[in-house]
Amino acid sequence: MSGLKKLIRDKRGFTSTITFIVLLPFIMAFVIAMAQLTIIGIGQTTVNNAAFEGARAGVRSASPVNAAIQAANKYGSGILHDWDSKATVTARSSGDTVTVTVKYAFPKYAYFNMNGIDIGTIVQSSSSQLIEDRP
Questions:
Q1: How far apart are CA 126 and CA 72, in angstroms?
Q2: One Pfam family of this protein, by short name (predicted)?
Q3: How many CB atoms lie within 10 A of CB 57?
Q4: I want to staple 102 with a disulfide (CB 3.0 to 4.6 A). Which of 7, 37, 51, 92 is the partner?
Q5: Partners of 101 in beta bridges
Q6: For residue 103, what are the domain limits?
Q7: How far apart, in Å, are the Cα atoms of 29 and each of 6, 61, 91, 117?
Q8: How far is CA 126 from the centre of its chain?
Q9: Cβ distance 33 to 108 under 8 Å?
Q10: What is the pTM of this model?
Q11: Do the beta carbons of residue 58 and residue 93 sit within 8 Å?
Q12: What is the pLDDT along the chain (135 residues), one digit of tens a residue?
């Protein structure tokens, strides 16, 4: 306790403590925002790569739609633990093109909900590839 009294008596220590207490909410908001942006970035990158891997697997298979969906889900679930419950993978094959669309609902921190900050919760990507050689 004597250390706290000494800190309060010392004007430099007291000023530093008050400054830290005043700035702490802003620092925490910044850290939470950076964490959320990181989650969004990882989600978007994973969705992009899953769509690409699905389309690539689809053009190399005799049943392109099933292979594309399976490959996209395999890729996404290997990176994001909640992929199976939060991702939607659709694929279609028309003519010589396989198109895979992936949507992922990423988790949103309660901080953004409480303060009415609306950032979308869905990231989406689509990838198409041409079938050059049929298996």
A1: 11
A2: TadE
A3: 23
A4: 51
A5: 90, 126
A6: 2-130
A7: 31, 48, 39, 12
A8: 16
A9: no
A10: 0.75
A11: yes
A12: 566 666 556 666 677 788 889 999 999 989 988 888 888 888 899 999 999 999 999 999 989 999 999 999 999 999 988 899 889 999 999 888 999 999 998 876 655 656 666 666 788 999 999 988 765
Q: Does any domain span residue 47? A: yes
Q: Evaluate whether residue 135 is within a structural domain.
A: no
Q: Report the domain count for the chain.
A: 1
Q: How many CA atoms lie within 13 A of 29 on its CB side?
A: 9
37 vs 117: CA distance, rounded Å: 13
CA distance 50 to 77: 9
What's the farthest any 2 CA atoms get from each other in the chain? 81
pLDDT reported for residue 32: 83
Between vectors from CA 25 to CA 30 and to CA 32, what angle results, nearest 5°? 30
Residue that is written with structure tokens 């050689």 in the block:
133
CA–CA separation, 89 vs 76, rounded Å? Answer: 10
User: Which value, to the nearest 10 degrees, does the dihedral of the CA atoms of residues 54, 58, 59, 62 take?
Assistant: 170
